[in-house]
Amino acid sequence: MFSKNDKIFQVVVESAPNSIIMVDPTGKIVFMNKHTEKLFGYSKKVLIGKNISILLPERYGNTHHEMIKKFFKNPQTRTMGAGRDLQGIKKNGEEFPVEIGLNPLKTEEGTFVLASIIDITERKKLELRERHYIKALETKNKELEQFAYIASHDLREPLQSIYSFIQLIDSDYSDLLDEVGKESIRYINDSINRMKNLIQGLLEYSRLGREAQLEELDLNDLVQEVLDDLNFSIHGSNAKITVNHLPTIKGYPVEIRLLFQNLISNAIKFRKKDVVPRIKVSSKKSKNYWRFEVSDNGIGIPSDYYEKIFTIFQRLHRREEYEGTGIGLAHCRKIIDLHHGEIWVESKPGQGSNFYFSIPFEKDKA
Ligand code: ADP
């Protein structure tokens, strides 16, 4: 039991940094602290004895009355209007967003409501700014994808023409060409092939996730299929690959397959010369997600590049050293974004790299 005249109670409530108001079962304000004067612009003298509805915009009138009635039927601590945007109204008519906590307070004269009112204008502004930011980012990403799709799609045609004419020159006029001419044709052909690969990569990048359907994926089977596909390079490099037991997850099949394929083939490709490549694929269950790991004992990556390697066309080596277009890890990041997870790398140059990615459980996906 609490006496409403209790001195300690009054001191605590007076010095609180939010507005605290006590109303009787009819909604009449019987007590308020200093901060209430500051927040709403009314003096105590004016507010005491008035109905609480004076502090709420008219459109809440009935709803608010109903809420008070409901509260007294089942008085327990709770937030008022949870999930809805509540507004307070100041003496000067200005409305502002509020959060109201309601607590029943048993006094010698019956059950009163102790309402704690917080001005959440700043919080709302921040939320709004965040929402605008995310929206702008989503629009930009869509535009970029669209651009990548159109650019790569349209670039294929002129490239195909160049390729056809070079083939024509090579077959019909090769007698007229000296060594320099023939060498030039070889260079042009190499460049065309590289450009084809880049365009293909870009096209695949912008297509990832389009029209994809989530499916239950037993990753043990999926990774085994990836290893079968990589059979040639596994044998060629004598790589020893260990795969621990993996879970079944909900994911996009083509994309998840590409993810493992890129990570494992990179682990084979970036091996150290004269060292047997040892690669391990494993998983760990966390509270809300699976964390996967693909580790190798290869050449490693300097820490300055941990982030950069996930951007499109970013590579650390010349083509003559290691084949590739620099798009594989950008694919991986996009695939993990599609699954609402994260991907990152830890590495010791000269000793090996550990690629990690997380995939939230189905119920945690947005
Ligand atoms: P690509 O393999 O075609 O070069 P990726 O996007 O797959 O493109 O990788 C980007 C760069 O990241 C690679 O060029 C390489 O420098 C580095 N990298 C990726 N995986 C590994 C790895 N397992 N070990 C060392 N370096 C790696």
Notes on the protein architecture:
- This protein has 366 residues and is of the alpha+beta class.
- Helix content is 43%, strand content 23%.
- The chain has ten helices and 13 strands.
- The protein has helices at residues 7-14, 34-40, 44-47, 61-73, 121-172, 179-207, 219-229, 231-237, 253-269, 328-338, and strands at 19-23, 29-32, 78-80, 86-89, 95-107, 110-119, 215-218, 240-243, 248-251, 278-285, 289-296, 342-348, 352-360.
- Strands 1, 2, 3, 4, 5 and 6 form a six-stranded antiparallel β-sheet that branches. A five-stranded mixed β-sheet has the order 8-10-11-13-12. It has a two-stranded antiparallel ribbon with strand order 7-9.
- The chain is elongated.
- The two termini are 46 Å apart.
- Residues 262, 266-267, 270, 296, 298-301, 309, 314-317, 324-330, 353 line the site of adenosine-5'-diphosphate.
- The site of adenosine-5'-diphosphate has 22 residues, from helix 9 and helix 10.
